[in-house]
Amino acid sequence: MHSTTAAEPPADSHLWLEDVTGDKQLAWVRERNAESVQALAGTQDFKTLESRLLAILDSKDRIPMVSKIGAHLYNFWRDAKNPKGVWRRTTLDEYRKTDPAWETVLDLDALAAAEKENWVWHGAAVFEPEDRLCLVSLSRGGADADVVREFDLEAKAFVVGGFVLPEAKSRVAWRDEESLFVATDFGPGSLTTSGYPRTVREWQRGTPLAAAAIVFEGKADDMSVGGYRDLTPGFERDFVYRQITFWTNELFVRRDGSLVKIEKPDDANAAVHREWLLFELRSDWSVGEQTFKAGSLLAAEFDGFMAGRRELHVLFEPTERTSLVAWAGTRHHILLTTLDNVRSRVEAATFVDRAWARQPLAGVPEFGTASVTPVDEIESDDCWLVTSSPLEPSTLSIRSASTPVTPAERLKQTPAFFKADGLKVEQHEAVSPDGTRIPYFQIGPAGLPLDGSTPTLLYGYGGFEIPLVPGYNATVGSAWLEKGHVHVIANIRGGGEFGPRWHQAALKQNRPRAYEDFAAVAEDLVRRNVTSPEHLGIMGGSNGGLLVGNMYARRPDLFGAVVCQVPLLDMRRFNKLLAGASWMGEYGDPDKPDEWAFIRGFSPYHSVDPAREYPPILITTSTRDDRVHPGHARKMTALLREQGKDVLYYENIEGGHGGAADNKQRAFMDALGWTFLERRLK
Fold it and tell me: Which of 170, 344, 542, 607 does the annotation list as catalytic?
């Protein structure tokens, strides 16, 4: 493990690359892009792979995932004919057919052409239960910042003179048909240091946005604020939340013009469903004589809790190897998605005779993923069930939460986009230096030659309590597994595979635990002769980009190639770039000397040694990423080039934090990464 020091790094000679759209900077980007295209994209093999990936992304046989609005099921769809996408709708009876008839609601390609804007779809918020008006969010080039415009689903047109919000990282929600809760950029002083809204306002129809009355104002160093209304008939209530840090928040209910704070630990999340107030705990919570475990889901009757009663019901309590992934409510049930040793499970919880009972829902694969969401939480107990495994394409079913043992009705299934014959999925465990068992999934040939010769890709994330679960990935299958290679998913600390404790084990000064875990998995693959360092590649994006950046700097002896996507890499300045300040709860504050002392130890930009040999690395990002600043990737590339390292760089001029704004860009970016790995690891 690298030693840490609080000493200031030398002056940053690459700081000029942080100017995202400067002419000189973009000229530098285009030079690097041209080098990467020449190195990777000039062969027929590349073009064949790119075409295959694009065909998968554009395939008409993909599952058109839907959400119910009124009497219709809505889907947003991209393909070769509609690269920007079309918002469309159909009925459930029609959806059951092999080839449903769709009615176009909004053609984004036509809109973008008419308005001369590169619109990227970011969703719609519907005014319920009338289900006629909605707020459509559109992004220029895929950035997080949106333009919000009111849309009429009956007229299939934007509302003339309706609500419109200019481009910003807004939080907007319906209060009633004539007013919205709006948190947006109102000018100087209205944003937090993280770049998110600081004030929640109530905006009346027909009045100027600037005249919207302030409902709540957060502090400048908060992460963000927002407001919303529970529109469930009979349970209408206004709420305001204050996101203090990424992991702490306050929730208020608005009564008679005043805000009443809901009592809970700051690091717990609270939400409502009908008469219930639910709490997701990130630390132990003692209430009276009882202590509830971190990772639990609790429920209390809302009115009783607000009146001072503390009757809390346990819907889920974690064990050493189980955790809660998500919950959602139907008319009479709470749906739970959980992990049992990183294997998905789904259950329906029901309140009967003053107690909650849970029943598993049938149809979940042994190895794989499952998620369950309500079709219409206001009116019914029907729910969508989506399942997949690394070798089994995704299936969408519909079922009732009231009959959990009854087989679900299968509606759609993704075709097999790659040949899975002769492949198998295994779950193994590595042991980290502190003795912690780290699970990982290995997908590859059943008859794998254990001689260390197989090209293997190790993928990880390890942050923000996000679990990595093994689902069907057509891109990985067609670009990698079909060639007899191995794909590995590492469930390292920092993620959410085993709940809050797994995440908190790698926070701030403990961040190196995630990197030690990842290295332990890599070493276990070598020990088992699955592969060897010269054939072992790694890939990660965003926080996963920070992960593989650290593995590059710490353990260059262990890997043959690195793909580092939309990464954080300069941890000295991450809190000063775009949304970076909001992640100090995860990494620490580099402006505090005692915290910079440990942060420097996992800042790849400050860890590379000019005299040391490193594996080849491909770094990719997006000019339009307004979450993780492209300066991280640019500066790291410039530093490595200066030191004579083997580095390629590609920056998509559009794409946002996802790296691509449409399927064509996605296919090209993915093909770059797979081609790089194929050449370096064989």
Answer: 542
